[in-house]
Here is the input.
Amino acid sequence: MAGCCEHDTCASNATAKVDPVWRRALWIALIVNATMFAAEIAAGFAADSSALQADALDFLGDSANYAISLGVAGMGLAIRSRTALFKGATLLLLGAWVVGSAGWRAVTGGDVPQAEVMGIVGFAALGANVAVALLLLRFRRGDADMRSVWICSRNDAIGNVAVMLAALGVFGTGTLWPDVIVAVVMATLAITGGWTIVQQARAEMRAITKAPSVVPAE
Here is the structure.
């Protein structure tokens, strides 16, 4: 068709039709993540587990990201790409914070986490995140904003498995090291995912800048 482009990067101000399935999936993901944040942060402090606290902060970050995605749904690709860039940077910062926190605990020492609480909460969180990841699976190859949502959900599910492995490690060794190691692994996932999102968002923004403006047909 005349005046149309193959990709959304045709015009930075072009708006996108909002998929009602996408919006509904985001609302479900937001509710699930907000609920799990409240439950896991309380359990993390009660069990003295860095891994649970790191996972809870990840739930909080994802809740904010889903809320942002709901806010920009249907807006132009330029806005969605900038939003994805912000979310990717947030993941990078969160990952850096977790590494620093886990490193500090490893140096200063602390109480051994409660393995039973870690295992139970980690299993419950895994069930919630697998459900959300399956819900968002169809959107994993969308634009940077959609992909960022998928990456967050995928990382959460992997992180929950890691928390349960940490619980087994703490139970078996009677030390806090498995908890600290898993916290660092989860931080690495956040950093890797954040970098992927930032790279795609920057590529989309460059493509928008280089793309010619659409001139309406007379």
